[in-house]
Each structure stands twice: as C-alpha cells, then as structure tokens.
Amino acid sequence: MSIYFTKEHEWVRVKEGIGAVGISEHAAHELGDITFVELPAMGKVVKQFDMLGAIESVKAASDIFSPVSGKVVKINEALNDAPEIVNESAEDAGWLTWIEIADEAELKNLMTREQYDEYLKTI
Amino acid sequence: MDEQLKQTPLCGRHEALKALMAPFGGWNMPIQYEGIIAEHAWCRAKASLFDICHMGEFLFEGDFAAGGLEDVFTFSVATIPVGRSRYGFLLNESGGIIDDLIVFRLAPDKAMIVVNAATAPRDFAVIGARLKGGAFTDISAATGKLDIQGPLSRDVMAAAFGAGIAAIPYFRFTTMNLFGVEAIVSRTGYTGELGYEIFIPSDKVVELWDQLLLDERVKPAGLGARDVLRLEVGYSLYGSDIDEATTPLEAGLEGFVDLSKNFVGKEALLRQKEQGVARRKVAFEVNSRRSPRHHYELCFSGEGVGTVTSGVFSPMLGCGIGLGFVRPDLATIGTPLTIIHERVSMEATVCELPFYRGGSLRS
C-alpha cells in the first residue's frame, strides 16, 4: 500500500483501486483541536483537487480537497460525534472517506512520503 | 515576528512550556500549551493559571469629584466602597465604547483602573484629557497580573498564601504581602468560574507563577482556552463584540451604565434610548458542532439581518455558540437564524445568556 500527499496536506492510501483519504498529521497538528468534520455525501463524484469537505478546529475552518478523482464509496461516520479522532490518528483511524479511484495515473501529481517530508521543510 | 511586539516577564516560562505564541493586542502571548480543549476542561474542573500581564493598569490619586474622575466612566467611582471593584465603560461622545474596564477602589482617594491591552495607550490619553486634577499614572509596565480561575482556585490560593483568601467575596479584593511585596488579590475573572486576579509588581510575577504551578491542581492555560471560557458565559470581548462603533445599549450592557450621573457619551445614549437602537446583541446556539465565526452573516428568512461578532465550538454544550448583532425585532429568544459564510450555512436559534450555567463563579 502506498501513501501519497497533496500540497494542501491531504493524503490518499491506495489499495486495489480504492483510496482512503485523510489529512496529514502535520495538518491535524497545525489545526489544533478538531471540533467538526464535514464529510461528502456517499456517491459524490469528485475531480482531483476539487472540494471534498471541510474541517474545523477551535482556531480555524479549512476546506478539504480530494487528492484523486473518483466516487465517494465510504465515509467515516465516527467523526460526526468524535472529530477528535483526526487529532489522535490523522493518518489511520482519522481517515475521512474512501474514494473509488477513477484514474491511478493522477497519483503522479501527488508527493510520496519522502517528497512530502521535504516539502514540509520548505513551508 | 513583528519586532514591535511586547512581551511579558513570563515569556521565557511560556517558551520553556513550548506554548504556541501569537500576537495579541500588540503583545506576544501564549495561545495554548497542551491544547485549547484540554486547557478549557481543566479550568472548568480544577484551576488554571493565565498570564494577563499584557493588560493595562492606571492609578488615580486625588479627589474623584474635583479631579474629574467621577465623570469619566459610565458608573460612579465615588460610590464604590473601598475594597470593591466595578465593571463599566469609557465612552466616546457618540456613546461608542472606547474600552470596557474595571475600577478598583483602593482607598478613599485612590483608584486603580484595569483596561484591555490593545486599547491601553488610547485609554490613558482619553482619561488623562478628561481629568481636571489629581495624579494619574500609567503603572502597566510595573504591574504584573496573573489570573487563577477554576473551582479549585480558592483551595489552591489558601494553600499557597493562607486561609484569609477564602473570605474574599465576589467582586471584592484585598491587599496582602506576597513574596515581600504588596499584591492585590481580587475575586474577579473572566471564565465563569470561581477565581482570582492577582496584581503584583512585575519583577515578582515569575516567582508567583512558579509558586502557583507547584500545586498539581494548577495548569497553565492560554488565550485560546480563555476565549472559549469567556464566550461560554457570554462575556463580550473588546475588539470583537464591542468597539467604538457599538454602544452599551446595543450590546445589551446597559446594566453597567448609570444614567443618573454625568459621563461623556451620556447625551448620545439618552438620544439612542429615546429613538431606539438600530441593532441589538443576540446570543445564539447552532444546531451542530459547526462554529460560527467573526464576520459570518446572520440571516432571517433569506435576508441578511446582522453579523456574528464571536463564535466557537462550546465543549460544555457540544454545539457551536456565538454572539452577534441583528435587527432589534429579531433579538427575541427562540428566533431562528441562518448563519452564512461562502458555501457554509448553519442553522441557529437565539438563546439566553449565559450559554453555560454550571460555572463555580459565585461559589
């Protein structure tokens, strides 16, 4: 399983054509205590880098952009009542949605873990 | 970082605690230590320590009436008994709020005025210009201030400085010797919890901070938690909820205005009272965990009717809460409002204050 990151700090972990999507640990830390997650509707079709949802912390509200094009096939409903899971486990239990990936070639527009870590040093 | 930013004597302590620092009112202040939600919860359950050294303090010595101090604020200073404090406003000619503040009656001819950090220089100039006599000094730099707030704060203070502290009633203060210097310990605060504001010479404030944090019931809290705490009890924040374009009548704070005495801005308030206000402060609860935020638009039946001035997710209520201003006819409890910002839309209902009623404030 490979994980890829966007410049807007979303990640996608790909397995058999499905991408689990979330925000990076760096982003969760920067946002601080997360108090609300707006998840997309099931079945929603998104394009790469289009708006997928929103996330709010005590400090700020941020949009979430989709790292890949495709259809939303699962959402993490646990976040409705316990959005703090994203703080506790941003790159694992704090996943937001699963997306059926339309075109895996788009992954080349994203960063690998190593590239993302380098990118974080520049911002 | 802006090189103009001022720092309190505790800056080194905050950095050692790895606090997230940010500019606030011209000062480099701690926003959070371990996290806003954890610090908020600690204050509601135990006792939290806040660095409030950035706030301004002025001293007036002389005859309040002859010196003109009696006519400066929306309340009478002369009728505050020695050992008590009073909250109210410094207004401009139009009745707009230059600042909200607390006056401490230290002696028959001596009062300390405690003001917000960002407004302090202007407050000092405005008050100074209105005085006709007496000695008026800015003691902000020489004065350190720590707030300890939370249901256990009385026990903590008594353990550290003696049982006499337990006798101080709400909105009263005492002077006492701490670390060899005179300090003012006041039963006031801004969180809705039992608590104290401690004024001490600024060169002793680090010692006081260290001493209070020795008690394991006490943890430091930053301005982030302070903002959530104050909003849950519905207190207005200067610069967000009230400002020079807002009068106490619009802000629902007429209880702190004594129209039977003279003060600058009184004529404007009397006119406004006669004509009716064009907008009125409301408190509202959102029907989800979503936070309303400063400048979001308030709508009623699809029409823009006002603006959010403060908003946050309330950990105690589990929903978004906020303050804002709307057309006066919509300020009734129960009025449904829609809060709009870009593609965000949330439903809210006008409610009573305080949002959170379980505080230990008057225990």
Automatic annotation (TrEMBL), chain A:
Q: Note how many cofactor molecules are bound and how.
A: Binds 1 lipoyl cofactor covalently.
Cofactor dependence is on:
(R)-lipoate
Output the superkingdom of the source species. Answer: Bacteria
Name the UniProt key words of this record, in alphabetical order. Answer: Lipoyl
The UniProt entry, under CDD domains, shows: GCS_H (cd06848)
- Where does the chain cross the membrane? none
Q: Which residues carry this modification: N6-lipoyllysine?
A: 59
- Pfam families associated with the record: GCV_H (PF01597)
Q: Show where the Lipoyl-binding domain sits.
A: 18-100
- NCBIfam families noted in UniProt: gcvH, PRK01202.1
Instruction: Name the PANTHER family for this protein.
Output: GLYCINE CLEAVAGE SYSTEM H PROTEIN, GLYCINE CLEAVAGE SYSTEM H PROTEIN-RELATED
| HAMAP family per record | GcvH
Please state which protein family the record places this protein in: Belongs to the GcvH family.
Summarize the protein's role.
The glycine cleavage system catalyzes the degradation of glycine. The H protein shuttles the methylamine group of glycine from the P protein to the T protein.
| Known partners and oligomeric status | The glycine cleavage system is composed of four proteins: P, T, L and H.
The protein depicted here goes by the name Glycine cleavage system H protein
TrEMBL record, chain B:
Q: Which residues cross the membrane?
A: none
- Say which domain of life the source belongs to: Bacteria
Give the record's keywords alphabetically: Aminotransferase, Transferase
SUPFAM superfamilies hit by this protein: Aminomethyltransferase beta-barrel domain, Folate-binding domain
Write down the chemical reaction(s) this protein catalyses: N(6)-[(R)-S(8)-aminomethyldihydrolipoyl]-L-lysyl-[protein] + (6S)-5,6,7,8-tetrahydrofolate = N(6)-[(R)-dihydrolipoyl]-L-lysyl-[protein] + (6R)-5,10-methylene-5,6,7,8-tetrahydrofolate + NH4(+)
Matches recorded under InterPro entries: GcvT, GcvT/YgfZ/DmdA, GcvT/YgfZ_C, GcvT_C, GCVT_N, TrmE/GcvT-like
Recall the GO molecular function terms of this protein's record.
Answer: aminomethyltransferase activity
Check the record and name the NCBIfam families matching this protein.
gcvT (TIGR00528), PRK00389.1 (NF001567)
Protein name, as recorded:
aminomethyltransferase
**Which species does the entry assign this protein to?**
Oryzomonas sagensis
